[in-house]
Protein 1
Amino acid sequence: MRWQRTGPPRWLAGRCAAFVLTLFAVITLNFALPRMMPGDPITALQDPESSLYVSDQASRAALSHYYGLDQSLIVQYGRYLRGLATGDLGWSIRLNAPVSLLIQHRILWTVLLIFPAMLAASLVSMVAGLHAGWHRGSPLDRGLIVLFAGIRTLPAFFLGVLALLLFSVRLGWFPLAGAQTPFAHYRSPWGALADLLHHWALPALVLTIEMLGGQFLLMRNSVISVLGDDFMLVAKAKGLSDRSLKYRHALRNALLPFVTVLSIQLGFAVTGSIFVEAVFAYPGMGTLAFQAVSARDYPVLQGVFLVFTVSVLTANLIADLAYARLDPRVRTR
Amino acid sequence: METHESTDCKRGPERPSTDGAVAHRSLLAVRELSVRYRLPNDLMLPALRGVTFELGRGDTLGVIGESGSGKTTLALALLGLVPTAEVEGVVEFGGTPLPLRDDRAMNRFRWSQIALVAQASGTGFDPVQRVGDQLIEPLQERRGLRRDAARERALRAWDEVGLPAQRFGHYPHQLSGGEKRRAMLAMALAGAPALLILDEPTSGLDSFTRVAILDLLRRLHAEHDLAMLVISHNPDDVRQLAQRALVLYAGRAVEVGEAHDVIESPRHPYTWGLVNAYPTMTRSKDLWGIRGEAPDPMCPPSGCAFAPRCTQTIDRCQAEIPALMPQLDRLVACHLGGLRLLLEARRLSKTFRDGPGPPVQAVQDASLHLGEGEVVAVVGQTGSGKTTLARMIVGLLEPDRGDVQLQGQPLHSLRGEARRAARRLLQFIFQDPYEALSPRLTALELVREPLDIQRIGNRAERDETARAALAAARLPTTREFLAKRVHELSGGQLQRIAIARALVVRPKVIVADEPTSMLDPSEQARVLRLLKDLQNDHGTALLLVSHDLPLVRKVADRVIVMEHGRIVEAGPSEQVVSEPRHPYTRRLLVAAAGARSQALRANGRAAPETVEAEAADDRLPAWKPPGSGREIQAGAAAEE
């Protein structure tokens, strides 16, 4: 029933251009910020007050030369960009390994944690929010609000520690740390998968719960505001069943703001994952970042931040595309 | 407006009246319907109080009222769409009571029996679904049609409201306001309902689209056996679409009757104010809003809800809620039976025999009446007898035959105290303030004098009242000004003093004989506006005697045209000006138009007139072409 085909939409080109521009700004910031901050390890190497001070003049110069600090900022920036283009994110000071390789090893674990958690949280909050909003003011609604608002006030690390204490220490249902049983030999790939899921379940659950509160409240508000719209009254005056009203009209429209905020939520999910991974000693990007912070491992931090920001940006772009799928007003202007 | 006579519903005796309907013809019977919204703080907000009416099959009823009068609540309540409200009363549809409080059960009636064309058709469609799909939706779900059959049926309705088929698959935001309105109508029609509820069918549309929608609605009503409930704040919508009209104020029906009659000659003071506040109702008159504010629904007045804004209240109005009672041709909820007849002159005649020549028949058989808050203009050239008529009406001249009734009392046979009381109710403003105002008195004394004569209040109170009256007449109240005498004041200021003097005793009727003819055009406009403004505020009836038809039509509700002592034409000013019936009226209008173009040729300068001569009309009237933006603005400003 398509009556018109819209050509290559102009808004899409606009969104992509904005994406590229923001990406460039982010990359530049990522270069500039560490150089503006006091207390990086290279400075520490040169600082006689610091414990890391390298007293040998020649070594200091060699280090500076190695990290390119004896060059002008423009040259450093050029090298940085060239490095990025070839996938070179620098060299970890702490682990003495290329940052890109470190990230490569870790990123899958984090993706494994964040995406299922976000998906689960979105689905649960969508259903719960729709019903709470639909039955606004009912005991169900009030109960759900208290529950989710309560969850929302708990910080991720607290929730994580709580879950560890209860399920791993007290009940012993789940392992205490890591993503795999170390030095284990599996008889089949299924055994490996089971072990993986066993380790994965608790941190994923905590991260899900962490995201649930905000998403639920958002969905509920979004539903309530849609229910007050004129078209809902008109639809009701058509004598449609509650099912049609709820799913075809209320849900579809309430999803619009929800999708927008979901991409912003990804940023929070990344932060949440740093805490959750730290608590569960899960070998993802979060732990990498966490350890890099304690060791002032700036090249690693820089790399991790770059990956995080680029993924949030990409999520925004995807959300924009999804929004256009859902809202014809954006698509067919 | 001419077209509606032909296409508008047949007005016949077989149509049921509001109270005693013929049972088999009755489609909708609303009895004592009350709706109270429950607020979040658990207070109850009454929106509709005991509304009763009936609607036959194929009949049309218009519901008129300001925003907040309960119109939309009525529409929604009939469909059981007021979930947060307490609904009392009975609504019968096709002889069986509607399950208003049972949301599920109401679904059987919604759309398929009673369809709603909601007020907000701009936002009435789900923005993320194609409009066509939204038409198909109920056909599939409610009628159980297959998709292609539903589509075919929906497209038929789509075609019927005059929308092109390629628009069917568009999204709501791709349609214009008028198209959305039509699509909304198509969606309602697709269910083949017996009753169509139209909530503000034309609000927010430009006038071309509005006319097209009204035409479409009339056509649909004629072609289908469709009863319509037209809800609008615009009386003209109702006049064009409905046979009968019900006027709502603060949730109560205050007037019910034939739509045309209710709007053309309102009987309830509120209807009167509402109709006069509408630009579409008149092309010549300025707009005057209803004074005061609509009541706060949380604490409505104890008696009649309109009493605080009404100009004719009696004690009972504050104490008791008036019931809807039959008054001649309609139902009116007013303790006074609607707008009071303030003054009635019956068959007045006067012949002057004291001159040297033959007796002059100055006025013959002239009858007129003046209702509460009404402005009536008596127009005619010099010697037409209008001044004689005015003087008889105020009792300055004894008629040979006929009588004048002031609030039901015969004015000319009153004596003593009763006569003085009647005098207070009836004030006269003379043509020439230089002659009418005593040169001995100061401005303050001039205005205070009627109070002195009527012995109202003590000295200090009278001074205070007089000062207030001067201020109301937009005159300064400085000590210097109050001490000025007639020769120190301009013509415009003097005429304003005369107006303040007339108003200071709070009369019910003011008769003004050429009150602006001595003034230059700009002062003339200002004084006339002031007079109308004060009249509007006080609810005073105004009889305006003038030779200047184009001028008085700006303020007059009705115009009476006199020639040679006889009334030759009378009617609503709009009608008299746009469709004059009597040749003399036509001549008056042509002469005025001629004088205007002449005066314009003379570079817009007009000599101040001293003597009313044969060519009484050769003056540049101080009015602008009707409908110019400035006037509307000024009208709005005056409303404030």
Protein 2
Amino acid sequence: MLRLVSRPSSTGRLGKVVCSGAPHGGRRSIASTSARQADITLTVDGKEVTVPKVRSALIQACEAAGATIPRFCYHDRLAIAGNCRMCLVEVERSPKPVASCAMPAMPGSKVFTNTPLVHEAREGVMEFLLANHPLDCPICDQGGECDLQDQSMRYGSDRTRFHEITGKRAVENKDLGPLVKTSMNRCIQCTRCVRFANEVAGVEELGTTGRGNDLQIGMYVEKTMDSELSGNIIDLCPVGALTSKPYALHARPWELKNTESIDVMDAVGSNIRVDSRGVQVMRIQPRTNDEVNEEWITRRPFVAASWEEALQTIADGIASSGATGNEIQAVAGHLADTESLVALKDLINRLGSDNLALDQINGSAPPLHGVDVRSNYLFNSTIPGVEEADAILLVGTNPRHEAAVLNSRIRKSWLHTSLEVGLIGERTDTAYGYDYLGADSKALADFIAGKGAFAAKFKAAKRPLIIVGSALAEQPDGAAAYNALAKFVEKNKDSLITPEWNGFSVLHRIASRPAAYEIGFVPSKKAASTQPKFIYLLNADEVDPKSIPANAFVVYQGHHGDLGASLADVCLPAAAYTEKAMTWVNTEGRSQVGRAAVPPPGASREDWKIIRALSEVLGSPLPYDDVLSLRDRMWDISPTLVRYDVVERTSPEVAVAGLQTIAANTVSAKVSGKPFLKPISNFYQTDPISRASVTMAQCTRAFVKGEDYGFGEKGSEAAYA
Amino acid sequence: MSLLRSSKQAIFRWPLPACPTYTRRFSAETHNQPVRTGDAPQKETAQIAEVADTDVLTAEVISGAPVELRHRMVRIYQPARNTMQSGAGKSERWRIDWDVLLGAGRWENPLMGWASSADYMQGTRMSFRSKEDAMHFAEKQGWNYYVQPPPTKKIPPKNYSENFVYRPNTLRIMRTK
Amino acid sequence: MLVTSLLRRSAASTPSVFGRAFSNSCARHSDALFMHRDTEYNNPKIPFAFTGDNMKRAEEIISRYPPQYKKAAVIPLLDIGQRQNKGWTSISVMNYVAKLLEMAPMRVYEVATFYTMFNREPIGENFVQVCTTTPCMLRGSTEILNTVCSQLGGITPGATTNDGKFTVIEVECQGACSNAPMMVVNDDFYEDLTPATTKKVLEAFAKGQKPKPGPQSGRKTSENSAGLTSLTSKPYGPGEFCTPEFS
């Protein structure tokens, strides 16, 4: 491997550390603002470092100074427990080493992280940790990326002083569901998983039982941990006690090539790292919190004959079906990337059709909120902005299943601030408390009329936020609800829509949806009423077979050959999201570019290339040959599509105008009184990739249906592993 | 004009789309600017499109590297920390790597089942101590590159005593060990 | 040789009694595993609720804490529950306390498993805890323990007699070292034990009587058993040895 390390650059590590008034340089500096009067300065290993006075732990100050502190229990995103004692440091005039995570940073103190005392103390701690830790490393999945392994290289002893005749502690393995494999013998009781479950996931079932040497992590009673975020405890575990069940014994971390990409399982656009070996994706790691996905288990079930043949068949199909104009329909599925949406829209428009449908209920009708004003269909408050809200009204949505990462943010804010949450829609377990207002339009009307305690709280809130589920538009009363909400927001624009704050947010659950609205991938009113004769399904796997006319010619383009493929006359194998470097627009309107981790198999191609090739066969070639010129076309459509990683805000005036259009569009809506239903009843299988996954099927059986999914290690010797 | 210079200029003339996020080459003024976006397209084009007539001789001219290499964009980014571990080592460095080659770029060896690839850059990564170093290297090589800005990390200050702070209102969480 | 090793292997792979892979953790403790398994006598379906008296006491205890910190009452409430539930804390007791205090059940389990004085398995009518920590051991607690075990029909520490009247366990220091050796029966300390007095105490309990708690040797408290060696003279009263003005 070619490896090249160039000369050191101008800014060394010290330059970031020494307090010169602006601690901006350090990527990990804790203070995001410049040094304030209230900050405190202390010395770590002879370097001065400044941290905020309010409640900074010593370990954070050490880290800001560039000193590496070994730790097991401390985690940046969890509460401090102070139970592993690995982060001991020496503080001047302190008689004993202090645990730097549990010690506040004090002004003027002198801290040493690399003295003989510190080393000896950490060696002692490590010796105790290793006393009961099995010598499993060769068969342990964590091997190679294990904190205990790494730190024992530095602080561990090569032989033991413990000779207990009873042997090392043996702990029963626990059953944490189909995602998490447990080997509790390896547990060092850092309780990160317990704190994660308790704080972030809102699952209070996980805890510690017993005491001292016999402390165990578990749920005491025999049951399965049920959380959409449970996969994260695999990453949190500093040892191999919690490892990934689907990934178990498949690969070693040093064999993996990692590619940083974007998740498409929901519309949050979580950043992920795709770890692949050879031609297979082995695992998905979060770059932020996210649930684990098992793409690598599946095999593509179909391959088309040859490209020329297939494309010609489609051209013939169009001709023989006699479809013209709006009778040519394109349906965009959940996992369609932005590039292919643009290409398909251009192609269909060139064929004289405006019939661009979305793969959802009412998807073949123009959307209620229109697509002319971005703020009508985007998550305007932004995802980090949720933490600023002091009252949130959820309408027809369950963020726990539609955007689990967003939900954990709401929970975080709910825990640490006096945030109040109200819910209109189906009752659901959100992992935080909420005022239940009702399930239908009447509840919404009551809220708007200011009835009830929550309405009063919402009115008094400085940063109120309304989160509208994308499923609301699919409800019978969706139009009426949109009408009422738009009027309400407009009326209260002083608090809801200000230059700093936009409290009307639509939460999408489908990765491709914001991009589709962004490029106007919606049918015109006239097209929506046309009976299609030629249907092009782009990754569309949710289509209702009944909605497809019997004599229509159907083309399916996708990667997992799910429901859509079974309806199709022609299947075109496309690349899955781990196999293409494409643009995704998340629910905030933030466009992010994913990366291909592995090349697509066999004859599969990127979606937009297939469409481009098809356009050639159909005699109206699209004017872009490579992805860069396609992105130029995207720039023409909307510059935000290629301004990566930033969210462009809508000005308050435009946002208000947008709401007025919603109100005008839906003015004739009737209230039927039907309740708003939540769209996702089975969180674990919302898309074709998950449906094709064995593990997700087990998750469904275990968590949704409550069955025994047959992976429990009852009475097997596998528990020794 | 020397032969080298003219050949170099000939090579540099590839199509330049207006999309601003993708940069090809920097003029002398924007040398230290990472690729950024946000302005009107024509302005962006003016900023980055022109090939600087400098005396830098890109390596591709004489290195004998395959022509295809020049048409592939490299990505310059800071790799994210491995979430499996708490150590932040190696996350300060900047990495150059290549997007995978599409179109039959991979197959399994029918005899042994080993993974093979037609992509000669698929296993290559280079690490640099700074973004500028990486950009400098890519420029010297004559590669197109895209600089991915690192995500800002916001870790709030935290304290052990937060576990025990008295809360006057309803408890929303019961802390545990 | 091969045969024996094969035999051994097959023996080793026989499933354990519980049908689980591992069940021999924490064998050192009197308490059961730190893991609840439903049994006939201990499962969440068995109803439990405080009696009226206990409820009143529980409410009084809860009222000592701020309303949002009701959870602070978990230990006293578990204790009331254990007393009401024949001396042991079943899963129903824990769940009931959790519900009463609006806590997640796991938070109660954590407390109940942490403190060894919550018995999570049924015990006999009389709960005999023999201290075997160093001071008691030096004063002959081993003999006391053996006496207790043999007196109760040869049971081992941690076991309950067949008639269900006694459960014996070894415990760590109870803080009565000056009257070592000692044992605790139910809530009372029986100190200064000898094998003979131990038997007497247990016999009394077997008959359903309650012997007088405290030192069994005739001492009142922890005074010197051989009589006082100092302060033997009459203490001087007020005015003695003072100048006449003050006498």
